[in-house]
Amino acid sequence: MTSSAPTGTLDGALRLVDYWATVYRRTWRGSIVTSFVTPLLYVLAMGVLLGGFVEADAEVLEGATTYLAFVVPGMVAATTMTTVVGEVTYPVMAMVKWNKTYYSMTATPLAVPDIVLAHLGFVAFRVTVTAAVFLAVTAPFGVYESLPGVLAALVVQVLLGMAFAAPVYAFAAGLRDETAFALVFRLGMIPMFLFSGAFFPVANLDAPLEALARATPLWHGVDLTRMLVLGVPDWSMVLVHVGYLLALVALGWWWALRRLTRRLAQ
What we know:
Elements: H1 9-14, H2 17-27, H3 32-49, H4 67-87, H5 90-98, H6 101-106, H7 112-138, H8 147-173, H9 181-195, H10 207-214, H11 217-229, H12 235-265
Helix pairs in contact: 3-4, 3-7, 4-7, 4-8, 4-9, 4-11, 7-8, 8-11, 8-12, 11-12
């Protein structure tokens, strides 16, 4: 008798590819505005129009020769964050509580790590597509100085996305209802979007607020993305950023397995 059980976590996750492909085929049109149009409007309004009134040298703008070149990498990283948070809050709640899809999945030979890896893999795919299109659309503005840096920045978006996805997924998986998502958006995502260096150097903040901004994952993603696409990498800081984001991914993965396992056992 041949067993149908997955031979490992990756094998189990790959068995859910058709499920997530079906989900994406049915929902991709609804993500166009939030993923591509809205960030592009921000770039046009704040980078092109408002940026025309901003005069500062490259030292103040962290290596960027114009405000547009400063704000575009920040918007790339900020879009990664907003895309990811949207994919691992209400969708996770739906699969645990409303549609109970996860319960159906665990009734098969699939295990919790297979399910989590498949879901995060889909999020990584969404981030890759969104960031690639954003980088391609903004390239004609002439703000990128290094093609290898742009390609590296695309990889960084996946890492940054997972650094947000894993912990937020874990948080969502253990919730009883969706009311706490308001805290995630209002006290987490929006303040980071505004104050983590996407629109102005965090050095402009008071010292305590600057230290707080530098502790956020978005600042690490923004700074890393900016120095790569502008072709001015500080390799010691690159290691710090990558190490910080990898630590978040590992911690979030461990927490996600723990929270979802407990939730599905109840």
